Amino acid sequence: MSVSSKTTPGACPGSAERQPAAARLRTGTLGTADITFFVVSAAAPLTVMAGVAPIAIVLGGIGAPVAYLIAGVTLTVFAVGFTTMSRHVRSGGAFYAYIAQGLGKPLGIGAALLAVVGYNGMEIGVYGLLGSAGADTAHALWGVDVPWLPIALAGLLLVWYGGHRSIDFGAKVLGVLLVAETGILVLLAGGVLLRGGADGLSLASFAPDNVLVPGTAAVLAFAFIAFTGFESTVIYRREARDPGRTVPRATYIAVCFLGVFYAFVVWAVIQAFGDAAVVEAAANDPGGLFFAAITTYVGAWAADLMHLLIVTSVLASLLAFHNAINRYALALAEEGVLPAALGRVHPRHGSPYLAGAAQTVLGLVVVLSFALAGADPYTQLLLWVNTPGGIGLMVLQLLAAIAVPCYFRRVRHGEGAFRTVVAPVVAAVLLTAAIGLVVSEIDAFTGASATVNTVLVALVPGVLLLGLLLAVRLRRGRPEVYARFAEEPTE
User: Domain ranges in the chain?
Assistant: First the structure.
């Protein structure tokens, strides 16, 4: 059933009359492949592999590929309860709606604020990576030294434009960029396999003795962060065709693809240098490991192409997160928590264009602030802003997992115990361990002082607490908004 003839989930009473029918999100637009493109693009596979996987190899040795499989299995278990609940809670607010329905409105409002801050942190910090990667690419290919700030600002403009246009336009753009960035990694892996690697192909990466090493905990922490954004499939529910099927399918495809693909590519790069030599090669030049491998096994032209595709990979990630943030802001504006103007939808493109403009302005302010402070775009703008964002989204996953059995205890349903109790409880335990790993290895993510790391980690519970205080204020000062928060529309 199209939402165009109904009050939008979470909307204020009468909002359907105030907003013309044409000014709605484009319902029935996205298929399984489109949603998958959005969430896999957010993870930026090429950037994660070329930029982070070498560090994982240094820390965890040749057993590093298994960490990505473990993270993928954990998040697949989480997806079981998460997607089951998506069939019953139809709000565009996803995380916060599930948490509010299962654990109560105060925690739901806290989760809403944490989601807004977390997703913004994951996107805005990446503008530092865009500037850094763009500058590196210009120097590597043309010998030109370009300041990072103009590149980041150009990215802000491009991402704003992509989010301003229709959602199907964004899906097409991300589809092309995702095929390109995964294609270059497949080309690298194919070259290694065809030539048999440096010392012949080996499965030693999957041997327990090579997996259970002291650095495994740190690698697991990196692996979990590499999946960030996969859960945003449910944010596109209102724009999906047959959301009861397409959203779960896209979620499973995304997380399974990322887990297997990451593990395969890391294993292939290990084969490119050989089990005995890869750790030293990664330690000596982590940023050049993938470029050296593809130059050897495919050709220098492929390394040049990889430089360019890393930049487009980062742009694709930015656009994917931008679209997710806009839809969270739209849902919260409809709830009455954020200003109503952020809930306006473009009459032609069907996009939450004012939310997109506001998010772009916020990104501009943060990027310029770091630039004016003389901060490094990678080690400070990217890592300091991204890290609390990533931890925040993992905390939301944990709360959502806990919310699933609590919700299904209170409602009548025909779902099995595995989906509503067993899988969510197992996921909650595993996610708790994963969050503990990330926090314990925070130094590896930021390279910052103990004081900075403490502040970055404390931001997550601080934002959640601020959200709880906001809930108290809403309950007292705007009881009608509080009562309506995350409630299902009446049929």
Answer: 23-484
Return the percent helix, strand and coil in the chain, to nearest 5: 80, 0, 20
Nearest to 22 by CA among 294, 401, 350, 314: 350
pLDDT in tens, 72-117: 999 999 999 999 998 888 776 678 999 999 999 999 999 999 999 9
Question: Across the strands, what pairs with 30?
Answer: 240
Place of tokens 């290694």: 192
Query: Phi first, then psi: what are they for 9, rounded to 5°?
Result: -50, 130
Q: What is the reported pLDDT for 489?
A: 54
Token representation of residue 422:
């067993």
Tell me the DSSP string of 316-337: HHHHHHHHHHHHHHHHHHHHTS
pTM of the predicted protein model:
0.88
For domain 23-484, the CATH superfamily is Amino acid/polyamine transporter I (1.20.1740.10)
Task: List CB contacts of 160: < 8 A, sequence separation 6 or more.
Answer: 322, 356, 357, 360
Residue the block writes with tokens 């299995």: 73
